[in-house]
Amino acid sequence: MTQNLKDIKVKLSLEYHKFLNVFDQAQLNKLLSHRFYNHKIELINDSTLSCCQVYQMSSVKLLKVKKYLNENLLKRFITFSQILYFFLILFALKANEDL
Q: What are the backbone dihedrals phi and psi of residue 59, each rounded to the nearest 5 degrees, phi first?
């Protein structure tokens, strides 16, 4: 155990000692081995996949998100995509109500 891990163990609550390896810098720098998975998902009764909103957003928040996305698209920090899968993104308001 490295000195860094020993220091963390002293500060870490006893109930979390089993997760001490999460803080091991040597482990963080290792690339996990590649594993190939190919799972088949069978739909029931010829169902189709649908899209739905996770939660309703107020029009004010929706406009802020749209503004943020448009600004970052223009700066090329993000790019537009037409892929058929998506990731949820969490936007948090700052104290001045900016994203």
A: -65, -30
The tens digit of pLDDT for each residue in 49-59 reads 666 666 677 88
Distance CA 37, CA 60 (A): 42
The type of residue at 72 is N
Assess contact for 59 and 51: CB atoms under 8 A: no
Q: Which of 47, 52, 78, 50 is nearest to 65 (CA)?
A: 78
Query: DSSP string covering the chain, please?
Result: --HHHHHHHHHS-GGGGGGGGGG-HHHHTSPPPP-------PPGGG-------SS---HHHHHHHHHHHHHHHHTTSS-----S----------TTS--
Top pLDDT among 50 and 60 is at 60
CA distance 84 to 16: 39
